[in-house]
Amino acid sequence: MSARPWPEGVGRRILQEVDSTNAEAQRLAPTLSGPEWILAHRQTTGRGRRGRPWANPAGNFTATLVMRPGETPDKIALRSFVAAMAVSDAFIAATGRTEPFALKWPNDVLLNGGKVAGILLESAGAGGTLSHFCIGIGVNLVTAPNRSDVDKNAVTPVDLLSETGALVTPEEFLDLLAPAYAEWETLFSTYGFTSIRGAWLNRAAKVGEVITARTGKESHVGTFETIDDTGALVLKTASGRRVITAAEVFF
Fold first, then answer.
1. In this structure, are 33 and 67 located in the same domain?
2. Rounded distance, CA 106 to CA 205, Å?
3. CATH (domain of 221)
4. Span 177-193, mean pLDDT?
5. Average pLDDT, the chain
6. Same domain, 223 and 166
7. Per residue in 113-165, pLDDT tens?
8. Which is more confidently placed, 47 or 190?
9. Is residue 29 part of a domain?
10. Which residues contact 133 (CB under 8 A, 6 or more apart)?
């Protein structure tokens, strides 16, 4: 396992404890001159998507990249796919293996079919103008939550150490992740989502298979065809082709 050089112009801040790396990123954002990664060895009030708590046992990875936006909110939201590609690359660099890893729409990374990492993108601003955005990333490096702590239909949580035997510290993982993210960010900023979409689909789980997308009180069952150029999920259902912009996906 060898990390590439740290990306030029990107900050690196390591904290022993914080309430939430996303919350800390939002507090620090007005003072930062450029992008910065914030890693915490312990979070006291970490959270995932839809405000759910995100446990962070010792040895697991929790970090946030905070950046200033240069695009519209819809393009900024696509960086969850950029981050997923970077996390996937970091896993490949850490293990030397590609086959156990897959991406789950919209923003999870799977290992041997179980959830090993999640991504949370948040933005802040006023008057329709974004001042900054944060990409929070949580990875089960050494410990996974109990199956009873997640939705009964959700993907089973797993951890990197148990599944692959790779023991990686949070700081080592950050040193793999930051250069990988910088590379995908350059592609995205230069060529747009087209440069990410095909690569993401090549690593996506269950393409061509039947999945369930749950949007609030509705559930849509269909074949996972693709994602479109806005990052929306495209399902082929019994009632026709359906484009879904936000949902929980179940296999």
1. yes
2. 11
3. 2.30.30
4. 97
5. 91
6. no
7. 999 999 999 987 655 567 789 999 999 999 998 876 666 777 899 999 999 99
8. 190
9. yes
10. 66, 67, 69, 76, 79, 121, 122, 123, 124
> Domains in the chain: how many in total?
2
Range of the domain at 199: 11-203
Largest CA distance in the chain: 52
Positive or negative, the CA dihedral 89, 93, 99, 100 is: negative
Q: Looking at the domain assignment, is residue 4 inside a domain?
A: no
pTM for the model stands at 0.92
The residues, ordered by sequence, that sit 6+ positions from 151 with a Cβ below 8 Å of its Cβ are none
222 and 98, same structural domain?
no
Question: Tokens 């993210």, residue?
Answer: 181
Q: Which two tokens stand for residue 178?
A: 């930051």
* Residue 133 sits in the same domain as residue 216: no
Please name which of 70, 58, 90 lies closest in space to residue 192, comparing C-alpha atoms: 70
In a domain, 5, yes or no: no
Q: Please report the pLDDT score of residue 123 as a whole number.
A: 83
Q: Say if residues 114 and 100 touch (Cβ distance below 8 Å).
A: no
pLDDT tens for each residue of 205-245: 999 999 999 988 889 999 999 999 999 999 999 999 999 99
Nearest Cα neighbor of 110 from 157, 178, 166, 47 is: 157
